[in-house]
Amino acid sequence: MSDAIPRLVLTPGEPAGIGPDVAIMASSRELPCRLAVIGDPKLLRERAAALDVPVTITDWKARCHRPGTLAVITKQLEAPCRPGQLNCSNAPYVLAALDYAAGACAAGEFDAMVTGPVHKGVINDAGIEFSGHTEYLARRLDVDCPVMLLTSGRLRVALATTHIPLARVSEQITQTRLERVLRVLATDLDDRLGVVEPRIAVCSLNPHVGEGGHLGHEENEVILPVLARLRQDGLRVFGPLAADTIFAPVHLERYDVVLAMYHDQGLPVVKYAAFGRSVNITLGLPIIRTSVDHGTALDLAGTRRADPSSLLAAIDTAKNMALRMAEQHRPTATAAP
User: Fold this and answer.
1) DSSP codes of every residue in 108-164
2) Angle in degrees, 0-180, between the axes of helices 19-27 and 41-51, rounded to the nearest 10
3) Per residue in 90-141, pLDDT tens?
4) Could you give the CA distance from residue 172 to residue 161 in angstroms, rounded to a whole number?
5) How confident is the model over 229-266, as pLDDT tens digits?
6) Helix (H, G, I), strand (E, B) or coil at 52
């Protein structure tokens, strides 16, 4: 970080969705960072006009964000875009923005990247295999164990597996994978989010913690041995715990984060409690990446009904993480000899 003001780069995501809308809405606020948006200036001007939000498109020059301006790194759309109408031709545009942002962060040109929502279906329909930001960025940055974490205040939920069919979850819950996920989670919560020696509650995969093996064997054969090894190394891991009770407030207050075994075991809890205000963070990457907690909401694009709260929270979280990382890497003053 070249100064005390974090440099963030934003990818609005699917151009036909609400990503451009919330980026434009956020631009009217005070933002304690330098913010660059990767996108097509024509698209952003047209969407701002549809929203009746005055915005001035500028080049990436300003030292700090000014309300009512949007600093843009230009990437041209592949095809015309209308709000709410998907076009496979624009899938390369979406991924080019991600490639640029990830590469620029890895090169130190930005301190963090913030992502808007993408539409996985239209990218796959364009002939490009894509299961989500988490997996795509991990491949782009040569990381084989990214960890998805959704957070809203004290509520934090991480995932042992991400965007895979439910039928494949059990085969993915191996001792090797679970141990790596837990080590990444413990390390990055401490280093990047300031949760020192985090207390990690680990969900069971099966109902009632497998009911002594009558409802499944993963708890005894996979989860328990991993937790025993990690406790010997000093990690504060607890479980396996029944997912149908761990999210009760009386239990949650004992832990700093819950590790769910699969996507829909943990994320519905966060989205019920704080949808539109929570933040998606990818741990295990060499860069900082945060994201909104919602999808493309095609029916809301261009209607003025989108809510930028999750994007604002993602920007604020990225800013705080960047400041924390900068502080950790600041040289320590030494006494004169």
Assistant:
1) TS-SEEEE----HHHHHHTT-----HHHHHHHHTT-S--EEEEEETTEEEEESS-SS
2) 80
3) 999 999 999 999 999 999 999 999 999 999 999 999 999 999 999 999 999 9
4) 7
5) 999 999 999 999 999 999 999 999 999 999 999 999 99
6) coil
Q: Token pair of 330, please?
A: 């600041």
Residue 220 token pair:
């005894």
Q: 3-class SS at 250?
A: helix
279 with 288: CB under 8 angstroms? no
Beta-carbon contacts of residue 196 (< 8 Å; ≥ 6 apart): 190
Per the DSSP assignment, residues forming a β-bridge with 238 are 201
What predicted TM-score, i.e. pTM, was given to this entire model?
Answer: 0.94
Dist CA 104 CA 127 (whole Å): 26
Q: Do domains 1-143+285-337 and 147-277 have the same CATH topology?
A: yes
Edge-first strand order for the sheet with 56-58 is: 56-58, 69-74, 34-39, 7-11, 112-115, 289-291, 279-283, 147-152, 155-159, 257-260, 199-203, 236-241
CB-based contacts of 290: which residues, under 8 Å, 6+ apart? 112, 113, 114, 115, 279, 280, 281, 282, 314, 315, 317, 318, 321
Between the two ends of the chain, the Cα-to-Cα distance in Å is 29
CA dist 337 to 160, 194, 334, Å? 50, 33, 9
Domain spanning 147-277: CATH 3.40.225.10? no
How far apart are alpha carbons 119 and 100 in whole angstroms? 18
Architecture per CATH, domain 1-143+285-337, reads as 3-Layer(aba) Sandwich (3.40)
Q: What is the pLDDT of residues 65-99, one digit of tens each?
A: 889 999 999 999 999 999 999 999 999 999 999 99
Domain ranges of the chain: 1-143+285-337, 147-277
Helix (H) or strand (E) holding 227: helix 224-232
**Which positions ≥6 away from 5 have C-beta within 8 Å?**
32, 33, 34, 63, 64
